[in-house]
Write a structure and sequence with these properties.
This protein has 311 residues and is an alpha/beta fold. The chain is built from twelve helices and 14 strands. The radius of gyration is 23 Å and the shape is elongated. It comes from Limnovirga soli.
């Protein structure tokens, strides 16, 4: 499968701050690639280097098999992007903005194509309204439409759900899936809404302090045999003693708070629950921790349970 993005040893130094540190990753054709990290992790800096808005200190970037330094114009013709708050002409309508940006991109669009594009991002019926009357969420939708106007092969979205209400967030999620599955686009999306990324991403990259922490598919990152289980009872001390004296002892993990942690296969949860009831443990909760959000917190600076994954 073709590599759409190939980044090798990418670094960016700002004075005495290394925003991106020897970062390497690949995005393959058709991926919905989730790019995750806490604020200040280096996500936006990386995206700006992918779009040639800033120059790397070190490293190489290839898009579509071409070196970004030597084939910048040819590459960017095939890329659509939205970074943070999109800029547009506030005193023009949504339709006029899209038509203008299409013209600037050298694309001839009929009225129907532009109208269909606006409907696709949820702005149907508002195409003739001036952008100055739009909410931030509506501007975000228009920005996505602008990024798609020249029918790019690669779409880079930096926090595309900023300013959107729950329905708008769901609409963007469905739009990303439509772009990938129905239109064959490769989508590189940075977001802090981990639950949304979990629902759309085929592969995920997590960075922390400019460095790659982990990269892989959801199946690789969320091995069911490595499920972390958090137990809370009315008497955790007594429950821990019982666990230590049982066959469940092999699954116990170092405690990071007052709760009890085990690492075991997800399929073992019913048996564990049954055993706890049989031991008359006053069970308050038995909570599997196996979501992208939990994993993210474990491998970045919020490493409350990281030992349970690495020991």
């Amino acid at each position: 499968m073709q590599d759409i993005i190939k980044v090798t040893g990418l670094s960016k130094q700002f004075s005495n701050i290394k925003a991106v540190n020897n970062l390497s990753f690949t995005v393959q054709n058709g991926d919905v690639y989730g790019f995750l990290g806490q604020n200040g992790a280096g996500k936006s800096t990386t995206i700006r280097m992918l779009l040639t808005l800033i120059t790397p200190t070190e490293g190489e970037i290839e898009l579509f098999g071409l070196n970004l330094k030597t084939h910048r114009h040819q590459i960017l013709q095939q890329v659509g992007a939205i970074i943070e708050k999109p800029d547009m002409y506030l005193y023009l309508s949504a339709y006029e903005n899209l038509r203008l940006f299409a013209k600037l991109s050298g694309v001839h669009c009929t009225k129907k194509i532009i109208t269909d594009q606006l409907h696709m991002v949820g702005l149907g019926g508002r195409e003739n309204d001036k952008v100055k009357t739009f909410s931030q969420g509506m501007k975000q939708r228009l920005g996505i439409a602008i990024s798609l106007v020249h029918n790019p092969k690669l779409i880079i979205l930096d926090e595309p759900t900023n300013g959107l209400d729950p329905q708008g967030i769901a609409d963007v999620r469905n739009l990303i899936l439509h772009l990938s599955r129905e239109m064959g686009k490769t989508v590189f999306v940075s977001s802090h809404l981990l639950n949304e990324i979990e629902q759309v991403a085929t592969r995920v990259l997590i960075i922390d302090k400019g460095k790659k922490i982990v990269e892989g598919s959801a199946a690789e990152l969320f091995d069911p045999s490595q499920t972390i289980v958090e137990i809370d009872t009315l008497d955790n001390k007594q429950c821990m003693v019982l666990l230590q004296q049982s066959s469940w002892q092999q699954y116990l993990q170092p405690q990071r708070s007052h709760t009890i942690l085990l690492k075991l296969h997800r399929n073992s949860l019913p048996d564990l629950h049954k055993w706890l009831v049989q031991q008359d443990c006053a069970l308050l909760s038995l909570q599997p921790r196996h979501t992208l959000e939990d994993f993210f917190l474990q491998v970045t600076s919020g490493k409350q349970y990281v030992e349970a994954f690495t020991n």
